[in-house]
Amino acid sequence: MSDVTTNATVLVDGEEVGAVVAVPESGSGPGVIVIQEWWGLLPHIVDVTQRLAQAGFVAMAVDHYRGVATTEPDEAQKLMLGLNIDQVSRDLRMAAEQLVARPEVTGESVGVIGFCMGGGLALLAPTVAPQVCCAVAFYPAMPWPHYSPDWSRYAGRCAVIHAAESDEEDTGPTIAEYSAAIVAAGGTVERFDYPGSVHAFFNDDRPEVFQRANAELAWERSLAALRGCAC
Asked: What φ, ψ does residue 207 adopt, rounded to 5°?
C-alpha cells in the first residue's frame, strides 16, 4: 500500500496551497504531478496518485481550485473558465520544483499527467516548469484561446496524448495545432486514438462514461511514458 499524505502543501507566492502526495511502499521513486479534471481535486484524482505510487512513483496533486470542488457540470465549467492560467502556471512550476526537492523523489526531472482540463494543463506544463520532462494528457480540454505557451521550451521533451473519439470535432484541431508546435520546437508527440471512446473514459468513478479496456490500455501506455520520461 502507498502512504498518502492528505495535508501536504505547496508554497506558491507565499501561499500554502493544499496538495495530496502519495509515496510508494519502497519509500522513493520518480516524481509525477497529477492535474485534476474540471471538477476539482475529487477522490478519483486522489486515487490516481495512489495508483501511481503503487506503480513506483511519488505522485503529487495540487488543489488548483483552492478547496472548491463540484460534481455539477455547469459549476465545473464556470470553475474551469474562471481559472487564472498564469496562477496555475505558477502552481505547476512550484509543484515541480518542490516535488523534485522532496527526499523521496529520485532524479532531477518529473513527469505530469492530467485529465480533461488537466490534460490541457499537462500539455502546457513543460512550457512553464523546466523540471517537467514528459506530459501525459488524457482527452485534453483547452478552452483558453488567449493563452500563448512558449513552445520552444519543449525541446528535448515529450507529450503523450490519449484522444477520445467523441472529442475529435471539438478539440481535434487544437490538439493538432499544439502537437505541431511541440514538434517544431524539437519535442516529440505520441498520440493514441481509441476507437469508439468517449470523453472521460478513464474515470472509473463515472460508470456512464468509464470504458475499462480503453482505460487499462491507456494506463499502461502512460506508465511506460512516465518511466521513460524523455520518450
From this structure: -60, -20
Q: Model confidence over 36-54: pLDDT tens digits?
A: 999 999 999 999 999 999 9
Domain count of the chain?
1
Segments forming the whole domain that contains residue 64: 3-228
- Rounded to whole angstroms, the Cα distance separating 59 from 26 reads 13
Largest CA distance in the chain: 46
Q: Does the structure show a pLDDT above 80 at 143?
A: no
Task: Using DSSP, state whether 133 is helix, strand or coil.
Answer: strand
C-alpha cell at position 94: 512550484
Give exposure, 143-181, as e/b (b: 16+ Cβ within 10 Å): ebeeeebebebbeebbbbbbbbbbbeeebeebbeebbeb
Q: Taking the chain, what is the end-to-end CA distance rounded to the nearest angstrom?
A: 28
**Torsion sign (Cα): 111, 222, 140, 49:** negative
CATH number for the domain spanning 80: value is: 3.40.50.1820
